[in-house]
């Protein structure tokens, strides 16, 4: 039976990289019906909603989606660009990504950071005697996607009940009671045991599948004792009860950002809350090629959305020849294939990408360390389209 996949190309370069991913999926023999979902800035401007209900309905129905990228702008620009017929109706811009994550409870974010051999953007370090060492990195970051500091429960000048509740806390009374309420901003960091357990479990399962003997809980439980502390405790208990062969290591986010510049290859599975997961995954992505290579999966209990980590890069959207690297989007498509049980096709595509990167004949501007500009194609950089074609061609050479 043919699958139905919802495609949400979005804004800017989203549609450009989506096109290449679909081309590669077709070349690997993956047959699907693709249905288009509207999302992004255009729909905010025209309809006052960046994630129209009809797109939510499509996701509800078909469950699996590929997503490109969207453009978000600050409040003033959002109000300004709204169609004049919709102005003054009390419409508020919300990021469709955050809305989508919250609506479908896409609580598990997986961000694999694997280096491809021969990528000039790979992390290297100096070894003994001035040698250069290029360790292969194969880290998967599990980021809680719906809670924590990005849970959006926050106030400036908190209402009475909130203020009174804060005043019941000794530390608040001692350290913050001096502040006039209108000058007080509070953002909460909420962790629930249910969703903390789900992200920790996802990390353990990945370690088990890969035959690893450790996972790293990357938080800060020595200071943020309640929430980070909960994640560490959940992991320790789950490890003991269900994964006796897998050790739970505790690494603080600040220390992790230092260690990843020294020995990133030692960290294979990292589990974090929302914000620290965001930070650490960008850190690792930078070691394996950056935004042109970083892909992610957002998994809920029923709906799954696969996307590159990058945004809509609007300044590159209207070049006569598109220059952005489609590999991140292609790798996101591989994550989708794995998710729906098409692992062989996913492996084939990854092998094709490996081949292209290692051969080094076709490289987008980012891989050549050029500044993004229309003329990079004249300096030898491959276009978005040529990179897609190179992966399709390489597919014929991998088994
Ligand atoms: P961005 O990720 O769009 O671009 C930042 C820079 O990274 C680009 O200028 C370019 O140099 C490079 N880059 C991005 N994708 C690339 C690719 N495929 N190949 C080569 N180089 C690439 O982030 P920026 O400029 O901060 O945001 C632009 C817009 O995207 C904003 O409106 C922002 O809100 C939105 N955004 C959307 C995201 C999403 O849809 N998931 C994520 C991040 C930002
Ligand atoms: Mg994206």
- Alpha-beta classification: alpha/beta
- Assigned CATH superfamily of the largest domain: Isopropylmalate Dehydrogenase
Largest sheet: 10 strands, mixed
Enter the CATH topology name of the largest domain. Answer: Isopropylmalate Dehydrogenase
Task: Please state roughly what percent of the residues sit in beta strands, choosing from under 5%, 5-15%, 15-25%, 25-35%, 35-45% or over 45%.
Answer: 15-25%
Describe the strand arrangement of the main beta sheet, using strand numbers. 2-1-3-14-13-4-7-12-10-11
How many structural units, i.e. domains? 3
Percent range for helical residues? Answer: 25-40%
- Low-pLDDT sequence parts: none
> If you average the pLDDT, what whole number results?
96
> Radius of gyration from the CA trace?
22 Å
Q: Kindly, what is the distance between the CA atoms of the first and last residues, rounded to a whole number of angstroms? A: 24 Å
Helix/strand order: EHEHHEHHEEEEEHHEHEHEHEHEEHHH
Keywords:
alpha/beta, Isopropylmalate Dehydrogenase, ten-stranded mixed β-sheet, two-stranded antiparallel sheet, 39% helix, binds 1,4-dihydronicotinamide adenine dinucleotide
Describe the structure in your own words.
It is globular and about 65 Å long. The chain contains 14 helices and 14 strands. The chain has a 10-stranded mixed beta sheet with strand order 2-1-3-14-13-4-7-12-10-11, sandwiched between helices. It has a two-stranded antiparallel sheet with strand order 5-6. It has a two-stranded antiparallel ribbon with strand order 8-9. With 399 residues, it is of the alpha/beta class. The two termini are 24 Å apart. It has 3 domains: 1-110 and 300-399, Isopropylmalate Dehydrogenase (3-Layer(aba) Sandwich); 123-153 and 188-287, Isopropylmalate Dehydrogenase, CATH 3.40.718.10; 155-184, no CATH class. Bound molecules: 1,4-dihydronicotinamide adenine dinucleotide and magnesium ion. Magnesium ion (MG) binds next to strand 14.
């Amino acid at each position: 039976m043919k699958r139905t996949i919802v495609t949400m190309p979005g804004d800017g370069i989203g549609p450009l990289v989506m096109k290449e991913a679909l081309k590669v999926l077709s070349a690997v023999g993956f047959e699907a019906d693709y249905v288009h979902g509207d999302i992004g800035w255009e729909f905010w401007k025209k309809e006052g909603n960046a994630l129209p209900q009809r797109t939510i309905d499509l996701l509800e129905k078909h469950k699996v989606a590929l997503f490109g990228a969207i453009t978000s702008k600050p409040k003033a620009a959002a109000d300004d660009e709204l169609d004049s017929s919709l102005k003054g109706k009390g419409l508020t811009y919300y990021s469709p990504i955050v809305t989508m994550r919250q609506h479908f409870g896409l609580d598990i974010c997986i961000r694999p950071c694997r280096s491809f051999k021969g990528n000039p953007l790979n992390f290297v370090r100096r070894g003994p005697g001035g040698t250069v060492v290029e360790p292969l990195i194969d880290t998967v970051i599990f980021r809680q996607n719906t809670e924590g500091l990005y849970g959006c429960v926050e106030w400036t000048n908190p209402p009475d009940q909130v203020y009174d509740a804060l005043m019941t806390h000794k530390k608040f009374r001692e350290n913050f009671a001096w502040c006039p309420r209108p000058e007080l901003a509070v953002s909460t960091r909420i962790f629930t045991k249910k969703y903390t357990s789900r992200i920790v479990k996802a990390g353990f399962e990945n370690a088990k599948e890969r035959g690893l003997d450790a996972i790293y809980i990357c938080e800060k439980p020595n200071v943020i004792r309640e929430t980070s502390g909960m994640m560490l405790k959940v992991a320790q208990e789950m490890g003991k009860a269900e994964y006796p062969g897998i050790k739970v290591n505790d690494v603080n986010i600040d220390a992790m950002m230092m260690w990843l510049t020294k020995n990133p290859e030692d960290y294979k599975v990292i589990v974090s809350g929302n914000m620290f997961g965001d930070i650490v995954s960008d850190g690792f992505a930078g070691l394996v090629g950056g935004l042109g290579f970083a892909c992610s999966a957002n998994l809920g209990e029923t709906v799954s959305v696969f996307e590159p980590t990058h945004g809509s890069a609007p300044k590159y959207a209207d070049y006569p020849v598109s220059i952005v690297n489609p590999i991140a989007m292609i790798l996101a498509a591989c994550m989708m294939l794995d998710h729906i049980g098409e692992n062989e096709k996913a492996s084939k595509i990854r092998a094709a990408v490996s081949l292209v990167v290692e051969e080094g004949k076709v490289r987008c501007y980012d891989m050549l360390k050029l500044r993004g500009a229309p003329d990079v194609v004249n300096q030898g950089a491959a276009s978005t389209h040529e990179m897609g074609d190179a992966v399709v061609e390489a597919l014929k050479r991998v088994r």
